[in-house]
Amino acid sequence: MNMTLTREKESPAIEIDNVGSAALTEKVYETSNLNLWYGENHALKNINLDMHQNEVTAIIGPSGCGKSTYIKTLNRMIELVPDVKTTGQIKYRNRNILDQSYKVEDLRTQVGMVFQKPNPFPKSIYENVVYGPKIHGIKNKKILDEIVEKSLKGAAIWDEVKDRLHENAYGLSGGQQQRLCIARCLAIEPDVILMDEPTSALDPISTLKIEELVQELKKDFSIIIVTHNMQQAARISDRTAFFLNGEVIEYSDTNTIFSNPNDKRTEDYITGRFG
Amino acid sequence: MKLINKSHVAKKMPARLAVNTICKGLFFLATLVGLLVLAILFYRIFTQGIGSLNVDFLQNFASRKPEEAGIKAALIGSIWLMVVVAPVSLLLGVGTAIYLEEYARKNWITTFIKVNISNLAGVPSIVFGLLGLTVFVRALALDRSILAAGLTMSLLVLPVIIVAAQEAIRAVPRDLREASFGMGATKWQTILKVVLPAAIPGILTGGILALSRAIGETAPLVVVGIPMFIAFLPQTVMDTFTVLPMQIYNWTSRPQEEFQQVAAAGIIVLLILLIFMNSIAVIIRNKFQKRY
């Protein structure tokens, strides 16, 4: 009962928002009626969300609410988990990515991902960055060198590593490793960057650097970020979706969510009453 | 109120520490037994065989006279055998492991296959000899050739290599694969560039252990019908041959005392070959561990 009420409340919120400042931005992702099951476990329930170009969309919610599951369906990384079933549609640039004729390799060259734990390859910094371009068939040394410099500069780590590009990436600190992973992601020149709790394993200073970086990156990319840190969502995102028990409780621009939430449960979560 | 009585804990302490010391001693003794046996073995072999071990011994063919007997045919034969066994068993073994770990769906059929591969590793080698005799020697008419014996040996060590490679592949962290897939790499690119480089030290360790077993095995080759006494070198994989353990077995079963010394010299050669192979594995492994 409550569910239906919420959804009716939620849709006007999006409409109002669309008329507002961000009305002109193009949609990169349109999710409609997405359901997902892990075996018998109904993990995502009837998700409807649109994400916009050159914006930062934050997904917040307590542990186990389905926010990581959702972001992993956006590049179909979820398929690595056995026994997952989905219904509904996720359109990326007007094409349904859940259609099996859409090759994941193709999708993931457009949609890059940064993971929760920094996961550089046990190779040199240089080799980490050129991994993506190389698997896509770029062999020209000069172009690769340029990609390395551009990507590392884009991820605000160039000055720290330019003199040791051929040293092993494991020698970097955790925060540097995560920025290297962002650089590695930029190297494939994606359209969208998915970030799954990218700062949860990092110290406050490294976190701040990544947050500043996200602000820079949204000029050129569309960013979708999962975070369990509400302040982070408030600081860096343009829109915020609140997930609870596999449902989207509320989705609107970040200011509205944090200053004037529509739903009681959103308010309870944001004010720290649970989660 | 405290639930733990500290004086009781203190009273128990000496006994706990004593048990700790006793256990350390027991495990040290267990290790010592193995070391002692190995030391006696080495001592016996070297004192007996070192006299017969010289350049002539390596250059001569087997002979009826112990002072002229040499190991040339068997040594070269063992190397020929490895030339067949190493590529066949490693390629098939690693290929199978990659398929089972990376491509195959996880269901009861693959579980059944995995369990049975582990079981195969425990099948007595003489059974593989019978298989080789039936399939390679007779059905495929390869006769008593290096190829037939090599394929038989490959089957024998295959399960060990598969299990070792599976474990090495499974130990590659999941987030490395995710990083690769996340950039649009195909499964094969991920296997080739991320999984295999990280798994190679483990695969090689298992592979070399398996090859060491193959070079010391005798039973399957007896069943396949490899001759024990040969006075020529094989020219192709279709020629017949003999190997070190067969030659050693042949010498030890002779009544003359001198042949026992020749056999000991043969064992030294076999041990050196084994150590040589193991050190190659260590070198390759260290090279990869430095890079990864």
Q: Give the number of helices of chain A.
A: 11
State the assembly state of the protein chains. heterodimer
Beta-strand content bin of chain B:
under 5%
The shape of chain A, in one word, is globular
H and E string of chain B: HHHHHHHHHHH
Q: Count of helices of chain B?
A: 11
Which structural class matches the secondary elements of chain B? mainly alpha
Sheet having the most strands of chain A: 6 strands, mixed
Task: Give the helices and strands of chain A as they follow along the chain.
Answer: HEEEHEEHEHHHHEHEHEEHH
Beta-strand percentage of chain A?
15-25%
User: Rg of chain A, please?
Assistant: 19 Å
- Main sheet of chain A: which strands, in order across? 6-7-8-3-9-10
Query: What low-confidence regions of chain B span 5 or more consecutive residues with pLDDT below 50?
Result: none
Distance between the ends of chain B: 55 Å
Strand segment count of chain A? 10
Helix content of chain A: 25-40%
Number of strands of chain B: 0
Integer-rounded radius of gyration of chain B: 25 Å
Q: Tell me the distance between the termini of chain A.
A: 23 Å
GO biological process, one term (chain A): phosphate ion transmembrane transport
Function (chain A): Part of the ABC transporter complex PstSACB involved in phosphate import. Responsible for energy coupling to the transport system.
Domain ABC transporter (chain A): 29-270
Pfam families (chain A): ABC_tran
Key features of this structure:
heterodimer, A: about 280 residues, alpha/beta, six-stranded mixed beta sheet, four-stranded antiparallel beta sheet, 11 helices, about 25% strand, disordered N terminus, B: about 290 residues, mainly alpha, about 0% strand, globular, ATP hydrolysis activity (chain A), Phosphate transporter ATP-binding protein (chain A), AAA+_ATPase (chain A)
Describe this structure in words.
The complex is a heterodimer of chains A (275) and B (292). Chain A is α/β, with parallel strands linked by helices and 275 residues long. Helices cover 40% and strands 24% of the residues of chain A. A 6-stranded mixed sheet of chain A has the order 6-7-8-3-9-10, sandwiched between helices. Chain A has a 4-stranded antiparallel sheet with strand order 2-1-4-5, covered by helices on one side. Chain A starts with a helix and ends in a 5-residue tail after the last helix. Residues 1-22 of chain A have low confidence and may be disordered. Chain B is 76% helix and 0% strand. Chain B has helices spanning 6-49, 55-59, 72-103, 108-120, 125-139, 146-170, 174-182, 187-216, 219-224, 244-252, 257-291. In chain B, helix 4 (108-120) crosses helix 6. Chain B is globular. Chains A and B meet through helix 3, helix 4 and helix 7 of A and helix 7 and helix 8 of B.
